């Protein structure tokens, strides 16, 4: 198994280098503009390695989960096309809905229509939030590594966590994902991090990267929720979710057009206005999410993860977020 992963890592690394050559030839490059957080031309779309990782797993698994992989391919293709040349929003949303429908076809059958609708809304919101948050070096790589690591920990909980929780650990706990899926995607993110998580990034994820990774994480989250019958695992995505949602609400309050690009997310204020190093900001976001994830896991296995606890955690995070944001705004006055 270790040999397989070494080979897969090399395949993914070489695939990234090949993509660099292609991107340079066809000028798939981000050039700095006023709202950019970078000052040098940088290859766009390096996150295509996430989709390649998914395809590599598809081959490795003997072509398992064809509907989910087809959805991944469709949503990655339309996102990559948008990276190259801006597409109509209606075209993108139609493809997104088709892709999500393919993903959901593997879950919740039979299911009430309102749960299907709720799943659509939440996945669309998560994909957009993840895309919004991909704005500085390292943030997508670090945050995704934390997410994958947390999901992998739960997927192997019978072996890794049962000794710590003893009698509190449920006897019927089972893995909810093929272990190789998380492992191979993790390798793809590690390759991307090598080229992105640096002071002068060699590549950005692009829409193809952020959208495809959000889709993959949605797949894993749905699997976890279906297995545990618990919605509270969305706390694993709460740091991104809170920054994205509250920034939208703040812009609406200011009567701004929320569809126009901006630099008002908290991570952007820290990186651009406060001049914090990108990797420092990215690490802080990932570290806070890691603490939330570990707290969520402990509360779940101790039997304390319920609606009052969930609401309390979200409330504390929102309060902290607003306090930090207000402090930054006041320091600029």
Secondary-structure topology with pairs:
Elements lengths: L1 H24 L3 E2 L11 E2 L4 H13 L5 H19 L4 H16 L8 H20 L6 H17 L1 H4 L1 H4 L13 H18 L9 H23 L9 H16 L12 H8 L4 H24 L5 H26 L1
Antiparallel strand pairs: 1-2
Helix pairs in contact: 1-2, 1-9, 2-3, 2-9, 2-10, 3-4, 3-10, 4-5, 5-10, 5-11, 6-9, 6-10, 6-13, 11-14, 12-14
Describe it for me?
The chain is an all-alpha fold. The protein has one domain. It is built from 14 helices and two strands, in the order αββααααααααααααα. It has helices spanning 2-25, 48-60, 66-84, 89-104, 113-132, 139-155, 157-160, 162-165, 179-196, 206-228, 238-253, 266-273, 278-301, 307-332; strands at 29-30, 42-43. The protein has a two-stranded antiparallel ribbon. α3 packs antiparallel against α4 and α3 runs antiparallel to α10 (206-228). The protein starts with a helix and ends with a helix. The model has no long low-confidence stretch (mean pLDDT 93).
Q: What keyword list fits this structure?
A:
333 residues, mainly alpha, two-stranded antiparallel sheet, 14 helices, 1% strand
């Amino acid at each position: 198994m270790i040999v397989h992963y070494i080979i897969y890592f090399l395949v993914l690394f070489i695939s990234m280098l090949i993509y660099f050559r292609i991107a340079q030839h066809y000028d798939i490059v981000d050039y700095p503009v006023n709202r950019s957080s970078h000052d040098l031309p940088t290859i766009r779309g390096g996150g295509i390695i996430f989709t390649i990782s998914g395809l590599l797993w598809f081959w490795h698994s003997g072509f398992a989960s064809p509907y989910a992989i087809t959805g991944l391919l469709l949503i990655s293709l339309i996102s990559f096309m948008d990276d190259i040349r801006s597409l109509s929003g209606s075209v993108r949303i139609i493809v997104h809905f088709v892709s999500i429908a393919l993903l959901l076809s593997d879950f919740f059958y039979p299911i009430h229509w309102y749960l299907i609708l709720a799943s659509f809304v939440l996945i669309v919101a998560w994909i957009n939030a993840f895309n919004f948050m991909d704005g500085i070096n390292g943030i997508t790589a670090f945050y995704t590594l934390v997410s994958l690591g947390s999901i992998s920990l739960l997927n192997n909980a019978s072996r890794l966590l049962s000794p710590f929780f003893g009698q509190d650990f449920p006897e019927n706990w089972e893995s909810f994902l093929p272990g190789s899926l998380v492992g191979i995607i993790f390798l793809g993110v590690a390759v991307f991090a090598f080229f992105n998580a640096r002071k002068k990034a060699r590549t950005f994820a692009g829409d193809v990267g952020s959208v495809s990774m959000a889709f993959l994480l949605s797949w894993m989250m749905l699997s976890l929720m279906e297995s545990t019958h618990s919605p509270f695992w969305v706390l694993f995505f709460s740091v991104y979710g809170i920054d994205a949602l509250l920034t939208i609400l703040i812009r609406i309050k200011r009567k701004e057009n929320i569809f126009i690009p901006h630099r008002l997310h908290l991570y952007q204020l820290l990186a651009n206005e406060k001049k914090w190093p990108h990797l420092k900001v990215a690490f802080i976001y990932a570290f806070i999410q890691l603490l939330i994830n570990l707290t969520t896991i402990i509360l779940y296995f101790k039997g304390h993860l319920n609606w009052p606890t969930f609401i309390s955690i979200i409330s504390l995070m929102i309060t902290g977020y607003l306090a930090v944001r207000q402090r930054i705004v006041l320091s600029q006055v």
